[in-house]
Amino acid sequence: MNINHAQEALTQAKNYYLKIKDISYPADLKPSDLWLENLRERLQPNLINDNSMVLFHSMLESDFFTYGRKVKSLLYSPVNCAFNSYFKKHADEQALNDLLLQESSLCSPKMSHVDSGKAKSHTFLWHFSIYEKIVRHMDCSKIQILELGGGFGGLARMFKLGKPGVTYWILDLHESLFYSLFYLKCNFPEARFALVSNPQELEQAFSEKHNYDFVFVPMGLTKHFSKVNKPDFDLFINTASLGEMQQNAVNSYFNLIQNTLNIKFFYSVNRFCDSYAQCDSPTPLDSLWKIRLWKLYGEDSYTQIDPIWPLYLEFFAERMKKEVFSDSYRKFISENCLQSAKSILKKRIFHPGAWPYLILNCLFLSPKRIPRRIMSYSNSSLLSRISRKTAILYAYICSWYYSSNWVYLMWESVRLHPNKDNLPIYLNYLQNQNAREYDYYLELAAKLGIKVK
User: Fold this and answer.
1) CB under 8 Å, gap of 24 or more: what pairs does 323-331 form?
2) Does residue 410 sit in the same domain as residue 276?
3) Is 440 within 8 Å of 284 (Cβ atoms)?
4) What are phi and psi of 401, to 5 degrees?
């Protein structure tokens, strides 16, 4: 990469950050304490660095925006093998062999390796997994994409390489936009950028949206989306950041995507039943989404390939019109889901859930001990006092009560039509899991006047 061009990109990114850094966040969008600490301790101090390569490499190596590991890590090779196994079963071979789709030369050499003639890193493999999954479910040839929380721009780069006709919007924290602008400017020096810094520029970006490759919007301007006439986006993406927000912020963003914007498809990978989440419900979908893909516990998915990753729910949904997805139809589907869930429990057709998957992966990749984060998923002090062998047996016994299919059916039944029949059953499950979502659905039950024991 041309070092002069990189320094020029760094200057442009800093100038943009100086224009937007004083834009205040609305009260309901204030970052969580976790992110305020990250901004103060990790992101903002880096902004004074004038060496573009050192700045970006230090960001990647600190594992702030990424799920990457250093090549010298003991877990690097096993996790890489797990990715390859997943790709052999699920990924499109043409995309896998496309030499254009490889890690950027901007990546730190401590984080990447070369495999089959392609530069790769765990961060690249994570972004490739998302990209490849989405393009198999919709035509992405020439669409408008809005990503909430674009990080350093890795997924945006992936889409622009694979589907050059897309216009990619990034709505993010002001400091994050600094990194993603620098990264994407370095990788696409000839691309057309709209750098929004005020409401007038936001309106202009919408009116000229087909003229841009990338559009950057600070989160502080989110409220001004409502002043544009029902903006259209073909795809909304969020991966791993909704669960790190306060519930007020999550609710505001869902109001944005479900009421203010005209969104056709929604792809999400976010925490589920995770005590580390900053909110009660990271993805409070309303009943007008048709679920095209729903994966939990990493089954047939990439989301639990590394055992230290949080427990994620992955879904791909299509927005439906109310006249098509009528109240009576949604109630009918909800009742069918509930009866199917009851049938599964009655027949005892169970599948291993999150616990054995996480524990066995953990023991395979790091046999000396079970990490504290994995232990926390059990929410039981018992595991801290028993042997590893007994822990595995305990994990299997505990996880066979609820299958991921049962969880999906109950989740879908409650989402489409919460009522006195399905909510108590789902609340009992969440309570047994000691899940943050329990409080969210308990409040929903109270609003509907449903008494829960």
Assistant:
1) 325/287, 325/288, 325/290, 330/287, 330/416, 330/417, 331/416, 331/417
2) no
3) yes
4) -75, -40
Per-residue b or e along 115-147, where b marks 16 or more CB atoms closer than 10 Å to that residue's CB:
eeebbbbbbbbbbbbbbbbbbeebebeebbbbb
Work out the pLDDT band at 400, boundaries 50, 70, 90.
low
Q: Are 344 and 428 within one domain? A: yes
Count of Cβ atoms closer than 10 Å to residue 368 Cβ: 7
Per-residue pLDDT reduced to its tens digit, 204-258: 999 999 999 999 999 999 999 988 877 899 999 999 999 989 999 999 999 999 9
Give the structural domain span for 280: 3-319
Q: What is the pLDDT of residues 113-149, one digit of tens each?
A: 999 899 999 999 999 999 999 999 999 999 999 999 9
Which residues are within 8 A (CB) of 217 and not within 5 positions of it... i.e. 6 or more apart? 169, 170, 171, 172, 196, 202, 205
Question: What pLDDT, on the 0 to 100 scale, is given for residue 351?
Answer: 46
Token pair 């030499």 is found at 99
Q: What is the spatial distance between Cα 162 and Cα 338, in angstroms, rounded to a whole number?
A: 40
What is the CB-side half-sphere exposure of residue 367 using CA atoms within 13 A? 2
Residues 270 and 398 in one domain: no
Is 326 part of any domain? Answer: no
The reply to whether 266 and 206 lie within a common domain is yes
Distance between CA 357 and CA 82 in Å, rounded? 13
Q: Read off φ and ψ for residue 189, nearest 5 degrees.
A: -65, -25
Q: In this predicted structure, what is the pLDDT of residue 308?
A: 74
Q: Is the pLDDT of residue 349 over 50?
A: no
Q: Do 352 and 421 share a domain, yes or no?
A: yes
Rounded to whole angstroms, what are the CA distances from 411 to 77, 289, 298, 359?
A: 36, 13, 17, 24
Place of tokens 């869930």: 341
